[in-house]
Amino acid sequence: MTSIVEVYRRWPAREDCIAHLEKVRWPGGALCPYCGAERVSHNRDSSREATAERWKCQRCKRSFSVTVGTIFHNTHVDLQRWFLLISLMLSAKKGLSAMQAARDLDMRRPTVWSMMHRVRKALADDGELLAGIVEKPISAASRARPIGATMTRPAAKA
User: Fold this and answer.
1) Which end of the chain has fewer CB atoms < 10 Å from its terminal CB, N or C?
2) How many C-alpha atoms does 154 have within 13 Å on its Cβ side?
3) What residue numbers bound the domain in which 91 lies?
4) Is residue 84 a part of any domain in this protein?
5) Considering its fold, how many domains does the chain have in total?
6) pTM of the model
7) What is the pLDDT along the chain (158 residues), one digit of tens a residue?
């Protein structure tokens, strides 16, 4: 769990967010999300220098960024706000409403609701984590009396 202040310290600019995503997604180097090729390079445009966020595959010739195929793909919201929203959602004890998150992030509620929906979908349990037989250890709590059983007291001695 990361605080809001920690999010600003760790990822103060868009380039830092992109560098973090690249490190997490591609620990061994960038891969093309479309064909899986390892031969990729920074996309160069004649009108501008090499950009830090676009890559080009040498096999399929497609241009891509680190956000392709993630919850951050096809959004105009900056990555720092995404990271802030995720931090807010994970640190909220009783959940976080879209209205409260919209106020905190200074954004529109429908946009925040859509972002929260994407985050929840990405965090959803697909059932594979606890697939198979799950054993419960025997403890004092499991030996307790069954629900609904009444407790009888010994008769008082006169």
Assistant:
1) C
2) 3
3) 1-11+75-122
4) yes
5) 1
6) 0.72
7) 567 889 889 999 988 999 999 999 999 888 999 998 899 988 766 555 545 578 899 999 998 999 998 999 998 999 999 999 999 998 888 889 999 999 999 999 999 999 999 999 998 866 665 566 655 566 555 555 555 555 566 666 65
